[in-house]
Amino acid sequence: ADANGVDLTQFENWYLQAGTPTVKASGEYNAEAQTYTLTMEQTTPPTPKQSTKEPFHIPVVTGLLGPDGKEMVPSQVLELTQEKQTFVLEGVTAEPVVSILRGFSAPVKMEFPHTDEDLAFLMAHDTDSFNRWEAGQKLMTKFLLELTSDLPEGKPAKDATIELPATLKSAIGTIISQRDMDKSLQAYAITLPAEGTLQQEMEVADPVKLRTARGLVIKAIAAAYKPELEALYNELAADPEKPYTPSKEEYGRRSLRNTVLRYLSANHKEDTEAVAELCFAQFEGADCMTDKLAALGCLVDIDSPRRAEALEKFYEAANGDALVLNKWFSIQASADREDILEEVRSLMKHPDFTLKNPNRLRSVINVFATNLPYFHAEDGSGYNFIGDCILEIDQLNPQVASRLCRSLSLWKRYNENRQTLMKSVLQRVVDTEGVSKDTYEIAFKSLQ
């Protein structure tokens, strides 16, 4: 294949070879020559029927940022076609910070020895949106995993606080203060990695400590930048004189404002009524479902009369609409509340709940299974509840029951106690007389 004089024959390896390449890169700055030498090496692990791999053609878009945050060397496409190659970038007048694999230019795992300071710099200044977000995710992931590992067992004190690393704190402050930044990117950039994503990085996952760590970081950010967040939230309020419009700009505004609301509601246990009133005001004044659900999502975590009032209003406004009612159920099942299992059991007794409607049961039972610290409660109550549901649903809809059974299949990720409890529920499913073939197969294979 040929395009504008470039031989693209090697691109065919992406179709002929399985596996995801890993690219390990390193760089060296030469102040005298004003050059930056970037070395990249690609490896792809063997897969069935392919023990050895030919090099892929990997386009690695790379730029260099100067100390002022501006591009010293703009984006260039470096064509990695050999197992190991070296590229020399010229006109580098100061020690740069490397922005590599810009725009996720190739589906590879990129490894580059960025320091925490480098990641914070890229998070605050990179001109490439993807790499700016990615740098922040890496920096926040590293801190969250370290914090999770250091936390003592048990629930933290109500007034527990942590100190944010200066690098992370500064980068987040820079993003919050920028008014010319794309608002959608701004929202993503200050959003912590999801619990499910973080669990994948842990050798032994601890959902309870992970939720605690994530909550402490959110509270620390909210406390460090409370005036700035409040000002930003007020600036992003919708113009009451303008009608709702589904534009890109409005989507970004709503996304950022709702992200900021989540931070402002982080201290709801210390300042319950003030936070509840803030969330309820948005709920009442919302001109679209996105804003209403964002406010309700904060309210369901808060012990305030406004919680019940908002839920009742939302239910009445749904007026029997199945999709809206599913949202009403799911947002309650996902709440961060100590009594969530009792709440879920109560929701299952609601007149509008039925196990015969797959979407309705998923909105409660499957959502609870993704509410990780409560599903993975150390006493096994979450697992036993899901086990009971699997067996009951199996009599009505084996396919739905078998999919729910998968929530117990990743038991090897957890500590010995959780493993034992999860396996006992899977064994109970396997041993149940009359269980469907679909559900039996998933439970049996999960135990292997």
UniProtKB/TrEMBL annotation:
Residues 19-112 form the Peptidase M1 alanyl aminopeptidase Ig-like fold domain. One of its GO terms (molecular function) is zinc ion binding. Transmembrane segments: none annotated. It comes from the Eukaryota. Keywords: Aminopeptidase, Hydrolase, Protease. Residues 116-448 form the Peptidase M1 alanyl aminopeptidase C-terminal domain. The keyword Disulfide bond does not apply. The keyword GTP-binding does not apply. PANTHER family: PUROMYCIN-SENSITIVE AMINOPEPTIDASE (PTHR46322). This is Aminopeptidase N. It comes from Fibrocapsa japonica. The lineage of its organism: Eukaryota, Sar, Stramenopiles, Ochrophyta, Raphidophyceae.
